[in-house]
Task: structure prediction
Amino acid sequence: MRRARFTSIDLALLAVVGVICGVIFTATWTIYNVSEAIAGPVGARIISYGLWFIGAPLAASLLKKPLSAFLGEFLSALIETLIAPAGGITNVIYGCAQGLASELGYLIFRYKRWDIFSGAIAGALAGIPAVGLDALLFGLIGGPTEMSLWVLAACFSGAIYGALVSSVGLSIRRQ
Result:
């Protein structure tokens, strides 16, 4: 496993990812509320959950270093909290948990794979703690069947958005 050494350019990129994704995270609250009114809670989660997971795969695809996924997600959640505290400090808790789960998407490949597939895995893995925290903090999830449905929705949404932002990050990196 490579050791993470972040240069000043890496830190600047993390800051940019944090701000951009933090703004997107803030806008996602509106997307979630509108889609919930139209498609119900499951549809809203499929549409929006993955948007809250994009900080990790975007940062990782740009930096290609251990801990970049965690830092990208955590910083994005921190910025979201500073911009519009709709979720309050729980945004930072979610960002930390989702960032750690996303980091596993790269760790399982021993930090040697930084492509669309690993981005999709990282995005999908972020769905697990998001649903767990929803259940724990807000009691939003019922029994095992309902919990499985939420996890599938979150992982599906996270995989789609994770793959998309990884492809964007990789294309930016090639420039």
Observations:
- DSSP finds six helices and no strands in the chain.
- The CA atoms of residues 36 and 44 lie 5 Å apart.
